[in-house]
Amino acid sequence: MAGIQDFRTTPFSRPRVEACGRFLGHRSYWKLYSIENYFRVILHSVLTVQIGPKWLESSVDRDTKARIDRIKKDYLKRAIHGSPGRHDIYYLYLSDLTKIMAASRHLIEPVIFDVDSWIIKMENVRIPRNLVGHMNFPSLADRNRIDTLHGELTALLQKLERQPGLRIVTP
Predict the structure, then answer these.
(1) Are 49 and 165 in contact (CB under 8 A)?
(2) Contact 128, 146 (CB under 8 A)
(3) For the whole prediction, is pTM greater than 0.90?
(4) Residues 58-105: pLDDT tens digits?
(5) What Cα–Cα distance (Å) separates residue 4 from each residue in 15, 21, 96?
(6) If we measure between CA atoms, which residue out of 125, 66, 74, 137 comes closest to residue 97?
């Protein structure tokens, strides 16, 4: 699998398209899924302790709240499909999450001292995440960036799980 080639750079072949999909699902998609959801859990857990259970209401601007409401209404209109999740944090984009972290830096730094570093890391994976999320093929450098961030975020979450006074909870 290490030698898999982006199907878009070769003559069309159904098996090659499927091989690329299997490769990205096995290699990158699951890590991006974990990264984005770990980040949500971390933000939710830290800000719940620092602000309270309704932290999101004071952490996003009016336009973002309006977008969340629109998206929720769209999902309600199509109840046959699943929904992003119970908490409004699941209606936010990765860029929204990094903005929340930046705006709440003063509340997060007592728990995660290198907030700016985490914002940069999350922003550096945003484009590769969008590539994979829109069924495109990220570069080797982007796949390595995903792997590195997944490992670092997993380590951070493990550290936070051992931190007294901080309960890691699913939003």
Answers:
(1) yes
(2) yes
(3) yes
(4) 999 999 999 999 999 998 888 787 888 889 999 999 999 999 999 999
(5) 12, 10, 33
(6) 125
